[in-house]
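Question thread 4412

I'm putting together a teaching handout and wanted feedback from people who do this every day. The idea is simple: show students a protein as raw sequence, then show them the structure tokens that encode its fold, then repeat with a second protein so they can compare. Below is the first pair exactly as I plan to print it.
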Amino acid sequence: MEGWKTTFVYNWIRCDDYFKTIRESLAKDSDLLARPITDHDVTEAKAWRANALERAIRKEREHATTQRQSVMSWLKNGGMQEEELDSQLSRCHPNTCDWLRDNSKASNWLKCGQDHKVLWLKGKPGSGKDAPICL
């Protein structure tokens, strides 16, 4: 559940900037429609929209850069990931992966060299695919 909450908040913050620009644009258009419009008003409105779009794009790029830097920093900190994996591994239920060891295809796969050790797990969200394999 926490993952969905984080995803929603992250995406909402990103969309909120665009919604704010749209709301401001609608307010400006409403003001223009409430009075006679001149060529100057149209030119000014076009310039405002162009600047608003440029600001939104710049803000999105800054946000993406910050996000990328945050992810790269997290990935470079391998010790934290190892600690998390060790913590999860210590919480495995006894006999957690017996089915994998008892399966002949899986056993053959485990006997392969390091170059061939790729395992693709698929299943419903939240079904435990990200749980550590206790082999």
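The second pair follows. I'd like the answer to focus on this one:
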Amino acid sequence: MDYKDYYQILGVNRNATDKDIKRAYRKLARQYHPDVNPGNKQAEERFKEINEAYEVLSDPNKRAKYDQLGADWQRWQQMGGNASDFDWSQWMSGAGGGNVRYTTVEDLGDLFGGGSVFSEFFRSIFGDMGGSHRSGGSPFGDQYTRTRSVRGRDYEQEVEITLEEAYHGTTRTLSDGASLNATVRIPPGVKTGSRVRIAGQGEAGVGGARGDLYLRIKVRDHPRFERKGDDLYITLPVDMYTALLGGNVSVSTLSGPVTLKIQPGTQNGQTIRLRGKGMPVLRRQGEYGDLYAKVDVRLPTNLSNRQRELLEEMAKLDRTRS
């Protein structure tokens, strides 16, 4: 009978914690499960080994006995003993060793067409201790040993969109040339960090549902608008004469240009609020943030002689009045 190194099978060291063992088992069981590898005999045998190793190392009583056996086995090898001459009798579970009756764990036998899923080594050493730790539960909630169903993992993919697309809403067509072929609607009002869920387009499940695909939105910076939450900020150039005398200016918004009335004497740097001209509020139809226009008064350049005379006269009048 051959000795089985369960730690090596799970790829963990002998000081591995229960958490380490469970994590290793989950990863390997997903990889080699028969539902993922139909008709692959090598994967089937590997899956049996993985379950057997987990059956032992996840149970404190079995692990303690196995560690004692392992220490004895290592000493025998270090002394130059022949593996075929090792005395297994002291480690066998009950008289007769391999003839001990053994009941397989849940329906794993059905998964492989009936019969025991454990090796001669396991049955000889542990006998009817098999499956005794299941009261503690499989790391999959017995999904591999009872329902054999594990939901696939969710995937996440970053998608860049423009501010205009975030305002109006947009779509993206996703395809991997195989199972994924979907047109996804990205709703108005999304922000950088927003996630759009596409059900059933994640990792394939193991006997269970597929995971989901999440699009993580990144909204590109805009050359004119700055976004803060649902509000937008813009710099509004206004000529000196309109700022002094008042008048109308055109303001660009994401829904189209609007006319804004400038009051006489508007100061440079003054901020004017345009209600409802900001971004749509995500999932609240008809609600919008505001647009804040910061006035940037532009002074005339290349004055004519007459313009300069008039400005000098204005300055004298202003000084006389003060």
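Top answer:
Good format. For the second protein you could add a caption like this: DSSP finds ten helices and eleven strands in the chain. The CA atoms of residues 239 and 298 lie 5 Å apart.
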